Amino acid sequence: MAEQFQEPVVEQIYTLNLGPQHPSTHGVLRVLLDLDGEFIIKADPVIGYGHRGHEKMAENRTYKQFMPNSSRMDYLSGLLYNHGFVLAVERFAGVEVPERAKYIRVICAELNRISSHLLWFGTYIMDLGGFTPFLYCFDDRENILDILDRVTGSRLTYSYCRFGGVNRDLDGEFISMTRAFIERLRSRWTDYHNLVTKNVIFIHRTRDVGVITPELARQYGVVGPNLRACGIPFDVRKSEPYEVYDRFDFVIPTGTKGDALDRYNVRLEEMEQSCRIIEQALDQLPEGPHINEVAPFKVKPPRGEIYFAFESARGLTAYYLVSDGSPYPYRCHIRVPSFGNLQVLTEVFRGTLVADAISILGSIDVVIPEIDR
Amino acid sequence: MGSEMASDWIRIIVGLIIVLAFSQLNALFLVWLERKVAGHIQLRYGPMEVGPHGILQTIADGIKLVGKELITPLSADWKLFVIAPVLVFMPVLVAFLVLPFDENLVIRDMNLGVLLIFAFSTLSVLAILAGGWAANNKYALLGAIRSVAQNVAYEIPLLLAVLSVALMTQSLRFSEIVAAQCRVWFIFLQPVAGLIFLICATAETNRAPFDIPEAESELIAGFHTEYSGMRFGLFFLAEYTNMFIVSAVATALFFGGWHGPFGFSFGLPGIVWFLLKVYILLFVIMWVRWTFPRVRFDQLMNFSWKVMLPLSLLNLIVTAAVLKFI
Amino acid sequence: MSYWKEIIEGGWSLVEGMRVTVRRLVRPVVTVQYPRKQLTLSPAYRGHIEFKVFPEIGTHRCIACGTCQRTCPSGVIKVQGVKDHARAPKVATHYMIDFTRCSLCGLCVECCPTQTLKYSTEYQLEEESRWDGVYDLMARLEERRT
């Protein structure tokens, strides 16, 4: 598209307020667009409509009390955030975790990652105007939610992980349901590929649209599937394995061009890799307690600070905790992946059409409450 | 003379009432059908509550729409704003004049019937432009601009496709075109023209995957963003009636009108065959809508000018050559 | 030549897509007409909290220690208790939760030293006023016992 874009006549520029109440800004994002006809000259994302002050809240709560907050920042991968927070605090305070709990956490976290990617897949096609794949994805996602509901007791904001384990053990039903789900998801790929991936309209809407070059990605701190789509195989699960990720055999899918189609392919392949991780984890699942019974009731990390990074569904996420030795964190900062992913849009939007802007915004997969937090 | 005049008037009034009643009922039914088809394609029920299988749902929705306040934005050009929904419905009604439901069931069998339908259906884009412009909303304006560009682009291949049929029958009268298909439907003789007609007709009626004027994920609701209540309802009904008309025209031009397949009528009256085929085509249009993503605006234009237009021209030339030399 | 190839391949991909949707069209639906038909709840379902009734003593075992009150991140729990005489164990007399602000994390259930709290399985909670969301667990317990 860029070569068709010419320098605009200044008088013909007008401003379009895309959002915060627009059907495809995914939450409460507002993008100020300067348009020349349908070409975007300047894009300026405005954030902060969903600010709830989670970081400040953390300072007034004990570590345990902050746990439910962690899954409310990124509501689509709440368990992953939960998992990350618990891991950070455990490492900080030196809490032992039984082997079984580690595996349970990985299984549930990967299930959550699949559900997040499935939802992204559905909503992205909906941004492109295809409504039906959205509901097929929800049909599959419903399965994951049922599985997670069975073990965690809730469907969106799980609060499942505890310092030293998880709050409920897996049962045989869960394992058989998960295995059945993975089989079912694999049988659905052909349908999804026939319906979407091979579709000529879809390919034309995504190929060479919203190209993020590796340099641009590095400058803006783009992470997660968006970074891997540029061809940089960076995944915290591989580069700095936490939990038990170093015991599984999985590959990091990468793209070549960094356009929307690559991002789409990377995410689809990531779901398959998550399935593989879950299968291996289920095979290796050890017996034992699901929670460390002797974990301290009140977590009091020593004076100091910790930076703990993990891979959420949208990329590198990190908790930075400072402790003054009290049961309350002195400071809690959360590095969210969507922030960097969103900021790169100012560069990518330039010279594209409004329809492409929607496509790019969807393909980046931003979760606004996570940025505003 | 006087009695002739009177009978003429009675004819017109009766015809108008029938057309109005039919178009409204048909639109209500189509909205329900669309929701049902969409629902079942998406593995859900669709409307189920009002009436058996939700058949009365659209009537309930209509009553709700009538009861709603008609909001006119302060900065809107209110004259155009009010006229546009009426304007969009008028050409739709005129088109019913010449649709051949059966051999003798035509309100007025004109010798330029085909031309009349396309002439009037072009007017609906005027209404969309008026509505989008008058609302004074940026999304509506974008939708209106897109709509005009799209309709201009797709009108031409559409007419060229029709022209190749007209060449074969040497007539623009619907009854003669249909009568010529009593053995073999034109879709078998003119498959390319038929396909082009169907694609362009989908684009003409702003249906997915060509629904860029009202692309809800980009332009919220496109040209009818600011319309509320029954004014929105009129746009909505007009869209569905338009769908019916293009399907009916496609049936008459390519799918043998009131004739059964290959001259076998299986004892069914012509109107049953006609409506059956129209509703099958409508189903296909809905099926397409609930399957594909939306094409982008410039790709839509490219597709029209670079694929549809050359193909239809080529088809026309081949048809003309074959007719000339055989 | 690639022009024709693209048209034909593109057209075929569209037909493939339509085959997927029409196969779903004839398949049975997966949704449930909700108020008429209801799904079974997950055994781990977390509703608002509720007192357990211990059959041995026929009532709850809340000693009004206030651990749940202090642990609750949203501060929705208020518990009060009395001692019959100076050396008797404390017994809860009032237990209120403001369910409208509860975030269902389950910390109160886990921290309870006497294990007297459980999750209820109620989920159809419609109220007329925001104060209807404030539950008196004692009154609910009495209601269940009678």
Describe the 3D structure.
The complex is a heterotrimer of chains A (373), B (326) and C (146). Chain A is built from 15 helices and 8 strands. Chain A has a single domain, classed as Cytochrome-c3 Hydrogenase, chain B, CATH 1.10.645. In chain A, the strands form 3 sheets. Chain A has a 3-stranded antiparallel sheet with strand order 1-2-3. A 3-stranded antiparallel sheet of chain A has the order 6-7-8. Chain A has helices at 54-59, 63-70, 78-93, 99-127, 132-152, 172-197, 200-206, 214-220, 225-229, 236-239, 260-284, 337-343, 345-349, 354-364, 368-372; strands at residues 14-18, 30-36, 39-46, 161-162, 165-166, 304-312, 315-323, 329-335. Chain B has one domain (72-325). Chain B is 69% helix and 0% strand. Chain B is built from 13 helices and no strands. Chain B has helices at 2-41, 57-67, 78-95, 113-121, 123-134, 138-169, 174-179, 186-189, 191-204, 216-219, 229-254, 270-289, 297-325. Chain B is globular. Chain B starts with a helix and ends with a helix. The relative contact order of chain B is 0.14. The model of chain B has no long low-confidence stretch (mean pLDDT 83). With 146 residues, chain C is an alpha+beta fold. In chain C, the strands form 2 sheets. A 3-stranded antiparallel sheet of chain C has the order 2-3-5. Chain C starts with a helix and ends with a helix. The model of chain C has no long low-confidence stretch (mean pLDDT 83). The A-C interface holds A 61, 64-69, 72, 132, 136, 139, 142, 146, 149-154, 157, 159, 162, 167-168, 191, 194-196, 198-201, 297 and C 6, 9-11, 13-14, 16-17, 19-21, 24, 30, 42-46, 71-73, 103-107, 110-111, 119.
